[in-house]
């Protein structure tokens, strides 16, 4: 097999691949055997007809088409290796010569990974955030814990105030007609949570247990149900129960009740320690991202649109998968948000472009600095993965090898090492 490479456009190359005639003949004979088992040829059992009879029955062109498909499937990957290119999309194939007894010649036009022109990436000056925790942050955390551990007390007499939980029956009407999904019984609604249509919860403030009222609202213009969007509605509501949070005083007893500490001061010290740790982790993450962002900004690269398109598609799939964990489909999400897939893709596009550029730049630095993952580092990573998934290392490694993903793991480790390298190089 021989390969000739020609650059025909920015980030686009064309390979002219020649496969020897004897390999084409072998592939044609193999195609005849396969087809003999699929077609009915009078006088022969399936799979027993000789090649000549198969050829007479289906035609030489059918055999050649079957053969060339198999040959391209094996020769194209080898041509990629021989030419040293890194395709980022499927090739466009053009058959130049396909005739038994002659070499198979075809062209493969493909978009390849772009060349990155690196800028400064060593000795960059990047400021790290200060990790200061104020007393007010500790107090805010305590108040949050106070809310979390509050008791709900039934209010037998009294009026609803903001923050109360009201148990209600309701039914909604538009132009006097009840609409689907507008009815509920024994629904617990936290007043002020913004769970219901704007204006609904406000009208329950000042209402007492057992009282029935009409709540007048207008559905938002962008409401997910087009039949209701922008419409005026009346909800007939009955308040069945009112519950109010009873907050415990923040003192030593409170600290004992909600933690392993004996005093409020001990609890505050623990909260402060955790807030400092979280602030340090956040500052470290922001610093890392700032270093990478600066390195990427200093580099230039012409990204093929298909790379961004592929990344956008991947982001949509990830979003859809996350929705499924919540019991929602992508179509339902679009209905609720009055959106569509195209709008989502456009929203993801800037992030996708930045993500692709970052990976290309880090990869270029990895190669420029000859950064690789050692066998020991790979073994340690596989050990960690095996523990996470509850598998033996040998099984994990075998599974990754079978799927051709070991190189992906090694490249990921090299990527991480490059990021550490860049951070170590900052001034």
Keywords:
3 domains, Chitinase A, domain 3, 427 residues, Alpha-Beta Plaits, four-stranded antiparallel beta sheet, extended, five-stranded antiparallel beta sheet, alpha+beta, Trigger factor, domain 2
Brief rundown of the structure:
The chain is α+β, with helices and mostly antiparallel strands and 427 residues long. The protein has helices at residues 21-36, 51-58, 60-83, 135-148, 252-258, 264-298, 305-325, 330-337, 341-368, 375-389, 393-402, 406-424; strands at residues 2-9, 12-19, 92-97, 104-111, 116-117, 151-154, 165-174, 177-190, 212-218, 232-246, 300-301.
Characterize the structure shown:
This protein is an alpha+beta fold. The protein has 3 domains: 2-113, Trigger factor ribosome-binding domain (Alpha-Beta Plaits), CATH 3.30.70.1050; 151-246, Chitinase A, domain 3 (Roll); 264-424, Trigger factor, domain 2 (Orthogonal Bundle). It is 48% helix and 20% strand. The chain is built from 12 helices and 11 strands. The strands form 3 sheets. Strands 6, 7, 8, 9 and 10 form a 5-stranded antiparallel beta sheet that branches. Strand 7 (165-174) and strand 8 (177-190) form a beta hairpin. Helix 4 (135-148) crosses helix 6, helix 5 crosses helix 6 (264-298) and helix 7 (305-325) packs across helix 9. It is extended, with a radius of gyration of 33 Å. The model has no long low-confidence stretch (mean pLDDT 92).
The name CATH uses for the topology of the largest domain is Trigger factor, domain 2
Order of helices and strands: EEHHHEEEHEEEEEHHEHHHHHH
Proportion of residues in extended strands: 15-25%
- Provide the CATH architecture of the largest domain: Orthogonal Bundle
Per CATH, the superfamily of the largest domain is Trigger factor, C-terminal domain
DSSP strand count: 11
User: Unreliable segments (pLDDT under 50, ≥5 consecutive)?
Assistant: none
In CATH, what is the class of the largest domain?
A: Mainly Alpha
Helix percentage range = 40-55%
User: What's the oligomerization state?
Assistant: single chain
Average pLDDT, all residues:
92
| Radius of gyration, whole Å | 33 Å
Question: How many H/I helices?
Answer: 12
Provide the number of structural domains. 3
End-to-end Cα distance: 51 Å
Shape designation: extended
Strand count, sense and barrel status of the largest sheet are: 5 strands, antiparallel
């Amino acid at each position: 097999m021989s390969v000739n490479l020609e650059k025909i456009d920015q980030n686009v190359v064309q390979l002219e691949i020649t496969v020897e005639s004897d390999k084409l003949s072998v592939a044609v004979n193999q195609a005849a055997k396969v087809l003999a088992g699929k077609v009915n040829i009078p006088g022969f059992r399936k799979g027993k007809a000789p090649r000549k009879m198969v050829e007479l029955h289906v035609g030489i062109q059918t055999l050649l088409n079957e053969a060339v498909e198999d040959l391209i499937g094996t020769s194209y990957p080898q041509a990629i290796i021989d030419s040293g290119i890194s395709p980022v999309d499927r090739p466009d194939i053009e058959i130049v010569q396909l005739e038994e007894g002659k070499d198979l010649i075809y062209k493969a036009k493909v978009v390849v990974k772009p060349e990155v022109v690196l800028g400064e990436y060593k000795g960059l000056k990047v400021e790290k955030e200060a990790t200061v925790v104020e007393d007010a942050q500790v107090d805010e955390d305590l108040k949050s814990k106070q809310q979390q551990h509050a008791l709900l007390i039934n209010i037998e007499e009294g009026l609803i105030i903001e923050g109360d939980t009201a148990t209600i029956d309701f039914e909604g009407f538009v132009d006097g007609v009840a609409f689907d999904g507008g009815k509920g019984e024994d629904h617990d609604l936290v007043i002020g949570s913004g769970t219901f249509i704007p204006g609904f919860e406000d009208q329950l403030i000042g209402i007492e247990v057992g009282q029935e009222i009409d709540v007048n609202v207008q559905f938002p213009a962008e409401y997910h149900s087009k039949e209701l969007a922008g419409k005026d509605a009346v909800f007939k509501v009955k308040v069945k129960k009112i519950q109010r949070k009873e907050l415990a005083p923040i003192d030593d007893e409170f600290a004992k009740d909600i933690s392993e500490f004996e005093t409020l001061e001990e609890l505050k010290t623990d909260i402060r320690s955790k807030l400092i740790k979280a602030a340090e982790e956040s500052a470290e993450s922001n610093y890392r991202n700032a270093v990478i962002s600066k390195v990427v900004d200093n580099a230039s690269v012409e990204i093929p649109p298909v790379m961004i398109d592929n990344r956008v598609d991947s982001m949509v799939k990830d979003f859809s998968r996350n929705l499924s964990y919540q019991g929602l489909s992508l179509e339902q999400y679009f209905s609720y948000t009055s959106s569509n897939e195209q709008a989502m893709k456009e929203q993801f596009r800037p992030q996708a472009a930045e993500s692709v550029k970052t990976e290309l730049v880090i990869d270029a630095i990895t190669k420029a600095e000859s950064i690789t993952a050692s066998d020991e580092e790979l073994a340690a990573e596989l050990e960690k993965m095996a523990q996470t998934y509850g598998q033996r290392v040998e099984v994990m490694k075998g599974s990754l090898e079978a799927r051709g993903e070991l190189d992906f793991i090694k490249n990921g480790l090299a990527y991480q090492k490059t990021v550490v390298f860049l951070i170590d190089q900052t001034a």
